[in-house]
Amino acid sequence: MAKTGDRSRAVPGSPLDALPFALDRTSPVPLYYQLAQQLESAIEHGALAPGNLLGNEIDLSARLGLSRPTVRQAIQSLVDKGLLVRRRGVGTQVVHSQVKRPLELSSLYDDLETAGQGPTTHVLRNERVPAAADVAAALGVAEGSEVIVLERLRATHGQPVAFLCNYLPPDLLDLGTQRLESTGLYRLLRAAGITLHSARQTIGARSATAEEAALLAEKAGAALLTMQRTAYDDTGRPAEYGTHVYRASRYAFDFQLLVRV
Amino acid sequence: MAKTGDRSRAVPGSPLDALPFALDRTSPVPLYYQLAQQLESAIEHGALAPGNLLGNEIDLSARLGLSRPTVRQAIQSLVDKGLLVRRRGVGTQVVHSQVKRPLELSSLYDDLETAGQGPTTHVLRNERVPAAADVAAALGVAEGSEVIVLERLRATHGQPVAFLCNYLPPDLLDLGTQRLESTGLYRLLRAAGITLHSARQTIGARSATAEEAALLAEKAGAALLTMQRTAYDDTGRPAEYGTHVYRASRYAFDFQLLVRV
DNA sequence: TAGTGGTCTAGACCACACA
DNA sequence: GTGTGGTCTAGACCACTAC
């Protein structure tokens, strides 16, 4: 028989029972999303400890007054984030390790700002030029056609961190030098209604040329971290092509990955 | 009125109509997965060109004899892969740009092998040692407790590419030096039943020390690409901690990203 | 044998985009 | 308006795991 109401079993598995989930059906926020957020914060705050079982989806949905697919959608979004693991026949558990950031297509400006570094930007160049071969190929325009070139020096605490060279299709928008100095390029693109969708990146290293060394306050020959990136908007159109060099002594790429399944 | 059967409209949007979808309900492969694969290969082969609309989900499910949620699940999986874009009120479209690889937690060995480079590995060290502080912290074991240390030199075409230093919990498995020389570490872990789940990575650069230069056939002071990684299994337990250095002249990290939504 | 997640169905209503 | 995807429901049966 079903053991409904049988407290003697004293299941240790589900601290979820004590959690006060509050779902607001009048809110425009989807129910599965409300649930996912509350589960995530419960994990974040330790109310759901690593290894804890969530309890089966049927009971959970009954208790929350939601249908099972809705509950599954919430759980699935956290599985995708790497916070939960499902095992058929076993249950859904909180992952042990701390997963924080999946790799994001983030701008250097945002990275530094998030790290509390108070980045500053100096625009060295902002003009329209004929596209060189590599730029034309990356942006999908004809060689020699006009593109915007942007050269910026980024610093934190008064010390240079990176030299950024970016190319943009000419019709996208005109970027005010002032605005470029007060925020990041990606934020400007987003504000202009361009939603980035994907990007192709290459990260490498090389020795600094004399010019780069001078710009970045390094010695000639110092190791630099390099990144080339082409970013595409959600129609698949190239929105930006950039070649960046970072002082290896002051910057590194740091991120979390989930294994493809 | 509905325009069912009205051919005069000559909708140009859905080349999907001509596609021969074959769903096998007796197969153990889920229906949504069968559909997703066939859609993906249609995109791959150009039967569905970039910008093409898929046609609405209701009609599609009716035509395929599937329910709408099942069709949505198939479409969603391709959206997650970055092949399709959905727009409410508009439809589902094939993305223009070629999206190939999302960033994977791949091993260097696999990377090189995929690139047809025929990698070789020389094991320099494979023994048990007391864990140093950083290693102990990364693997979540006590400082001074026994761990496996692995030092390998990887080459392609007879030229060194990278020096790999890895640490593993001692109870995981014993790695035969022979097997290590014939395949990648991650493949061995997988074969031992360890499924990797996530990893934390830092990619940076620095100048080569004299020893590194000698090992990698570079000049002292040459720019090297560095990577530190801690990989976790699906219970969140650290499975591997590694510090790798790559010859910048022969290797770079190359990958595709999707923007988080 | 019992319990779990994995898959699937056949509907419903809503929010948003575009003409 | 009309059509699209976004969300949600209330069931069903299956496959796998553990006991």
TrEMBL record, chains A, B:
<dbReference type="InterPro" id="IPR011663">
    <property type="entry name" value="UTRA"/>
</dbReference>
<dbReference type="Pfam" id="PF00392">
    <property type="entry name" value="GntR"/>
</dbReference>
<feature type="domain" description="HTH gntR-type">
    <location>
        <begin position="29"/>
        <end position="97"/>
    </location>
</feature>
<dbReference type="Pfam" id="PF07702">
    <property type="entry name" value="UTRA"/>
</dbReference>
<dbReference type="InterPro" id="IPR000524">
    <property type="entry name" value="Tscrpt_reg_HTH_GntR"/>
</dbReference>
<protein>
    <submittedName>
        <fullName>GntR family transcriptional regulator</fullName>
    </submittedName>
</protein>
<dbReference type="InterPro" id="IPR050679">
    <property type="entry name" value="Bact_HTH_transcr_reg"/>
</dbReference>
<keyword id="KW-0238">DNA-binding</keyword>
<keyword id="KW-0804">Transcription</keyword>
<dbReference type="InterPro" id="IPR036388">
    <property type="entry name" value="WH-like_DNA-bd_sf"/>
</dbReference>
<dbReference type="InterPro" id="IPR036390">
    <property type="entry name" value="WH_DNA-bd_sf"/>
</dbReference>
<dbReference type="InterPro" id="IPR028978">
    <property type="entry name" value="Chorismate_lyase_/UTRA_dom_sf"/>
</dbReference>
<keyword id="KW-0805">Transcription regulation</keyword>
